[in-house]
Design brief:
It is a single chain. The protein is of the alpha+beta class. It contains 16 helices and 15 strands. A 5-stranded antiparallel beta sheet has the order 2-1-5-4-3, covered by helices on one side. Strand 4 and strand 5 form a beta hairpin. This is SpoIIE family protein phosphatase.
């Protein structure tokens, strides 16, 4: 299998070889004729075959070369213009050289005419085939079924004219056998397919008319140039020019160029209207894309200002805030801006509704020196509120009519929507960033909590914990000092969210540092912790906590309460629950050395199976359905007394179910922690 590049190379080589053979046959025939040497002329079949091979390979190479971008009509016309220009210049060079040889040097040989004829014929056919390829792309743009089949039949007809070479090279008389009216109507019917013309703007149409006009002149020049070979009786190669295929191709190319030129000329007056509408659509699109592409408010304002300036041909403009502060400005100096702002203040303009001002220079002397006499101010409304205003000015008076104002109103409304969407997007991004940050904070806080609760074979522990808003200020922890001593802490930082979580992390660091001292008592722990926290937390922040030191060998618990919720203790021997109401002050409230006076150490002896329930105020302060009553302490006490024999997890679930039933929902309004210890 041949590759695509191989096919191109083979086609180029065949094209060159066929042209050389065609030139050789033409020159050889002329030479034999001039010398009057009896010879067998080349069969028309051979000459026609070589000519067709050259035409087909030339068409293939040009078709490969002319591959512009989609809808690049200017690129196509430019390519043909360049081909026409080069072909014409080369042909002129050939004619100048021929004239010089014939007239000045009197070098008048038919063989020389044959060479120059084949060169000019090659240039003309290259131009015709290149133009044909381009016209095909233009005609079949947005094609219909009728256009498709009409063109297909025309290509078949051209193929038939090429087959005529195999029977007779000179077939000009065939035209007289074909109804000329039918052929003319056929070409005209194809030539009215100019759907690509409306896609050009005014400037592009002017350029297109110039390029097509030059192509028409180039074709006319070639026709005039080749007339010489028609009248040269001694030239035997002129039968190629009289062939049906080049003649049909020439007529079609010429007619379509003329047809396209006329359509462009007739559509010029309406081009500005369509361009303006297209510009409006493009501006609306740019305003919408400003949000999608992550633009800022200033970018939206620039698009709005530039679009409005172009739509009404304003001389200058700017965006100003409600307090007359200029934000985005173009085309005007500061002095003129101050003059216009003064006019708006005197009007007065307050952003409540659009305002149009006109200053007549002929009746008032004070208006004679104004640079801008037409002023349009339109408020930019975002989410039913006036955010800023668009100001447009023109030098001529009464040069902003109601249609222009309506167009600008549409731009401003679209800009308001874009700004509103931009605000929503900005808020969404911020919320997403906040959400991601909170998720990271949650993962960090969860990492700070103890991973394992199996710290002593004589103690069973269960804990459930949940912040109100992803992260919170509740904290619990435990530390095993040795085989028979364990410390527990539960703490509650004032406030919620990231700030409380940050202070909670500091509390953990202090606990992990101080709890490692085996001889430290709970009151000593809080005294040292208060001193450490004083320099870490803000003055409006405090921490409540309960600290337990359990000695399983002596079966006793030392504990202290720094303003925290009282510990609920169930005594299996007495078969009753009670709250350990020892006093103490929260950490961070007293910020001096006197804190030790406000904290006290307590000790209790326990029995196997006794329960200690530590919790935060998120449980006791849970609100009922009416939003007034609090859950309190007694509900939890009753549950412990009734279900103390159950596993700790089931006891915790009983408490939570009771709280949720009391609240009428399964979500706490505050951070909560529930720590159960079975001694």
């Amino acid at each position: 299998m041949f590759s695509y590049n191989s096919v191109k190379r083979i086609s180029t080589i065949v094209c060159i070889i066929s042209w050389v053979l065609l030139l050789f046959i033409g020159v050889q025939e002329q030479y034999l004729t001039d010398e009057q040497i009896p010879h067998a002329p080349f069969p028309s079949f051979v000459k026609g075959l070589i000519l067709n091979v050259w035409i087909i390979t030339t068409y293939f190479n040009i078709w490969i070369f002319f591959q512009p971008k989609e809808r690049d009509f200017q690129g196509l016309l430019w390519q043909i213009f360049v081909v026409a220009l080069l072909s014409t210049l080369l042909s002129m060079g050939v004619n100048i050289l021929l004239t010089w040889l014939r007239d000045d040097l009197e070098y008048n040989l038919p063989v020389l005419y044959a060479i120059f004829f084949h060169v000019e014929f090659t240039l003309l056919m290259t131009l015709l085939i290149s133009t044909f390829v381009t016209w095909k792309k233009l005609i079949l743009f947005e094609q219909t079924r009728f256009t498709h089949y009409t063109w297909l039949l025309f290509e078949i007809f051209l193929g038939i004219t090429m087959v005529a070479h195999f029977f007779r090279i000179g077939t000009i008389d065939v035209y007289f056998k074909i109804p000329s009216i039918f052929l003319t109507l056929w070409i005209l019917m194809i030539s009215v397919n100019v759907r690509w013309v409306p896609h050009l703007n005014f400037q592009q149409k002017i350029q297109g008319i110039f390029k097509l006009g030059f192509i028409i002149l180039a074709l006319s020049y070639f026709v005039a140039s080749l007339k010489f070979y028609f009248y040269e009786q001694s030239l035997v190669s002129d039968d190629i020019v009289k062939n049906l295929f080049p003649l049909t191709l020439l007529i079609f190319v010429f007619v379509y160029a003329a047809s396209s030129t006329l359509f462009m000329l007739f559509s010029l007056p309406t081009s500005s209207v369509f361009e303006k509408k297209e510009q409006e659509i493009s501006s609306f699109r740019n305003l919408s894309l400003a949000v999608r592409d992550g633009k800022k408010e200033s970018d939206v304002y620039r698009v709005l200002l530039n679009s409005s300036l172009k739509s009404i041909q304003a001389d200058a403009g700017w965006i100003m805030s409600n307090d007359y502060e200029v934000k985005v400005v173009t085309g005007i100096d500061e002095e003129d801006v101050r003059q216009v702002l003064s006019d708006l203040r005197n009007a007065p303009y307050n952003g409540g509704a659009p305002l149009k001002l006109n200053y007549q220079p002929y009746f008032r002397k004070e208006n004679a020196n104004r640079n801008y006499r037409s002023i349009l101010a339109i408020p930019i409304i975002v989410d039913q509120q006036v955010r800023d205003s668009l100001i447009l000015v023109k030098r001529l008076h009464n040069s902003i009519d109601s249609v222009m104002q309506s167009t600008v109103n549409t731009y401003v409304a679209q800009a308001g929507i874009a700004l509103f969407n931009l605000d929503l997007l900005s808020k969404a991004v911020k919320n997403e960033v906040y959400k991601n940050s909170m998720q990271i904070a949650k993962q960090t806080q969860e990492a700070l909590m103890p991973k394992s609760l199996e710290i002593n074979e004589n103690i069973e522990v269960y804990v459930t914990w949940e912040p109100a808003i992803v992260v919170g200020g509740d904290y619990y922890d435990m530390h095993r000092l040795n085989d028979h001593e364990v410390s527990f802490i539960i703490a509650d930082v004032s406030g919620k969210g990231p700030k409380a979580a940050f202070n909670m992390a500091q509390m953990k660091g202090i606990y992990q540092s101080l709890a490692r001292e085996e001889s430290i008592k709970p009151d000593e722990f809080f005294t040292k912790a208060n001193a450490a926290l004083t320099g870490c937390i803000q003055r409006d922040t405090f921490i409540t906590a309960t600290y337990l030191h359990v000695n399983t060998d002596e079966m006793k618990v030392d504990f202290a309460r720094a303003g925290h919720c009282p510990t609920l203790y169930y005594d299996t021997e007495k078969q009753e629950a009670q709250f350990l109401e020892n006093r103490g002050l929260g950490l961070g409230i007293v910020r001096n050395n006197s804190y030790s006076k406000f904290i006290h150490n307590h000790e209790i002896k326990y029995n196997h199976g006794d329960l200690m329930i530590l919790y935060t105020d998120g449980i006791t302060e849970a609100r009922s359905k009416n939003g007034i009553d609090e859950y309190g302490y007694e509900h939890m006490k009753k549950i412990i007394e009734e279900y103390h024999e159950l596993p700790l997890k089931e006891i915790a679930n009983k408490i939570l179910e009771d709280i949720y039933g009391f609240m009428g929902k399964k979500a706490m309004d505050d951070d909560f922690t529930l720590l159960l210890i079975r001694l």
